[in-house]
Structure prediction request, 323 residues.
Amino acid sequence: MSNLNIQPDIKLSVKQTFGIDSEMKVDAFSKKSEFVPVIDKDYIFDRNTTLAVLSGFLHNKKVIVHGYHGTGKSTHITQIAARLNWPCVRINLDSHISRIDLIGKDAIVIKDGKQVTEFKEGILPWSFQNPVALVFDEYDAGRSDVMFVLQRILESDGSFTLLDKNKIVKQNKYFRLFATANTIGLGDTTGLYPGTNQINQAQMDRWEIVTSLNYLSLEKEMGIVLAKNKNLNNTKGKEKVSNMIKVASLTRKGFIAGDISTVMSPRTVLHWAENTEIFKDTGYAFRVTFLNKCDATEKNIIAEYYQRCFGEDLPESMINIQN
Prediction:
């Protein structure tokens, strides 16, 4: 990838751009590049999370956002970047991401008609040298060899030693670093997120801003669902969406209490509302959106949640069917 020879050239009002009561003004780009995320015009920003992320952009602070899955941790960062026209790259730190993927590797290329071996820099040094917001998703699931590579970036004082190439690369003035995680570096102490790891506390100390984002109030979550499903923005539709969110809230409480092993995130509620419009059947949409994902031994509990909120039972065939 070629270097991005651009830099912020305008200032945006946080109040006007994000609808948040703040006098802050933040750097932004007047033009988009290919790495700028697409704007979701209906996106609703959480004030505390948004101010934390904006501080990262404005003051070059390393920001990590943690909380339950599906709460919009990553999209908060990308939607802020979208409105700032700030190039943004997301990397999911799953078990398949290796040190080589991040740093780079030797590759065979053709030069002057001959095959030669040449080191190709990975996404990490490229981002470091460009005005890019680099976002590490599932930060607490990263492999140990990968985490030690990232520590070199977190410790950076404006340079990054690329040992594989015997080269020191300089940090772009507008490089920004963010991460999202389900836990906050202590590992999966609740049993809710197997596969997450403890993070070296010396590394956690290098994250300068830590903010949490968890499930929204009923009113805010309803606003998100209605913004995406405008056909439900009426009295009857609002009652239906309210009941959907109440079901989701019960699954979250049951999930945290250990009664069930699958939880409805705000993303799942959005899908449920969309599928209700497709199938014109709230119960069937609930089945194909969420119930079919659940353990067979827990379906009766979840069916009870549905009954309590909608005042009607799910058909027995929905609860007992395995597929």
Observations:
- The chain is about 40% helix and 15% strand.
- The chain has two domains: 10-212, 218-320.
